[in-house]
Amino acid sequence: MKITVSQLQEMMDKRLEQNVDALIEKAIAPYTKIDPSKRPNDYDGEQSRYSKEVTKQSAGFRKSYSQLFNKEYLSNGGFDDEEDLLNAIKSGFDPRLKGLSGGVGSEGGFLLPDQFVARIIDTALEDEIVRPRAMVYGLKAGKGRTLSIPAFEDLNHSTSGISGVTAQWTAEKAQKAETDPKFRLISMKTNKLVCYTKSSDELQTESGISLSTVINGAFSKAVIFYSDVAYLTGSGTGQPLGVLNSNALLTQAAESEQTASTINYDNIIGIFSQLAPSSFKNSVWVASISTLPQLMKLSIEVGLGGEHVRILQEEKGKFYLLGKEILFTEKVPALGSAGCLGLYDFSAYGIVMREGIRLESSIHEGFRNDLTSWRMILNCDGQPTIANSLTCLDGTTVVSPFVQLGAVA
């Protein structure tokens, strides 16, 4: 039987591929052979080393709690459900609470098990405006409060190139142009978002309302609402720096002689024209709910027949303005104020969340009235990842991922 050169080459390639696969499998065997009687966070020896590797810093869009902190296993701390956990925290004497490290048991404060934190964080993700569209970083417990994120200076494409990197067509053997990329560090320091409420012991026992329904429902909504407000309008002092207070924010001024507390078509075109081209794909409109009547009245004339087409369109429960989704909310200023309407690309916004949520309870403040006080504490921070607006290649056009309508008063 004769073997051609091509057949021989194919046989050699196949043998080499098999050998490489065998070597790879042998190399990773210590990391993949896991004792089935052990949970992922109980690995030892080589497995512990591998576990440490996969807990490196990760970031991304729309990541769940387990993805953000690289958790293969979410512990429930030995509690059946939220009701069981909350009753234990309220009593303060349950021996299972000793496993919730980092809390202050004598004061009724404990770190929630991962399962319960994940439910709060992941549920909130669906209802928030900024976080699902932002770049979110996880800060592991015990790693302090500060996280530094590297970024480029990208302010002027006409003089500084793209992200500080210039390019030039050169002939063969010609000297290549030097580039001087400009970097900066964004320092994010987590701040405490403290949510506070009280529950009535009498109401709980007589109405049959579960403690978890009262507490978890209230805190989940509060975490969603107040963190989102800060990412939009925060001052940056003791709280995140919101988009509407960013140096990168551009403002479209009201038209001359425009009636107070109105929105017209020129306002919307002006906002859109200042949006950075790279942000067209990811941007969404964010509008105060008080702007809805104004936007619903806006239309443009089409054709010689004078037919008017409304610019605010609805499709399957979502609203669109000039083809971009618009989110109506109470979290931005009301109609007539700066920021009542804006077009934003939140992929240019960074958020850092520290691992874990702390829950504290106390009966002392409301002891005479049978009231229990509850506090939930989330540590997070946020700010735009760009320092300023961008001058385009033409040297005159200024754009930004964040553009708002100015005050119309």
Q: Would you identify the regions where 5 or more consecutive residues have pLDDT less than 50?
A: 27-57, 102-108
CATH third-level topology of the domain at 58-154 and 184-241 and 351-384:
Major capsid protein gp5 fold
C-alpha Rg, in Å?
Answer: 28 Å
The topology string of helices and strands comes to: HHEHHEHEEEEHHEHEHEEEEEEEEEEEE
Q: What overall form do the CA principal axes indicate?
A: globular
Q: What is the name of the CATH architecture of the domain at 58-154 and 184-241 and 351-384?
A: 2-Layer Sandwich
Strand content: 15-25%
Structural class: alpha+beta
N- to C-terminal distance: 92 Å
Structural features, described:
- The protein is of the alpha+beta class and 409 residues long.
- Among the domains are: 58-154 and 184-241 and 351-384, Major capsid protein gp5 fold (2-Layer Sandwich); 254-346.
- It is built from nine helices and 20 strands.
Please render the helix and strand layout as text.
Layout lengths: L4 H28 L13 H8 L5 E2 L4 H4 L13 H10 L17 E3 L2 H12 L9 E5 L6 E7 L30 E7 L1 E10 H7 L3 H23 L16 E3 L12 H9 L10 E5 L3 H6 L1 E4 L4 E4 L1 E4 L2 E4 L2 E6 L11 E4 L4 E6 L3 E5 L8 E14 L5 E2 L6 E2 L2 E4 L4
Parallel strand pairs: 3-15, 7-20, 8-13
Antiparallel strand pairs: 1-3, 2-16, 4-5, 6-17, 8-14, 9-10, 11-12, 12-13, 14-20, 15-17, 16-17, 18-19
Helix pairs in contact: 4-7, 5-7
Features:
Major capsid protein gp5 fold, seven-stranded mixed beta sheet, 409 residues, 25% strand, globular, alpha+beta
Summary of the model, kept short:
The chain is of the alpha+beta class. The protein has helices spanning 5-32, 46-53, 65-68, 82-91, 114-125, 201-207, 211-233, 265-273, 292-297, and strands spanning 59-60, 109-111, 135-139, 146-152, 183-189, 191-200, 250-252, 284-288, 299-302, 307-310, 312-315, 318-321, 324-329, 341-344, 349-354, 358-362, 371-384, 390-391, 398-399, 402-405.
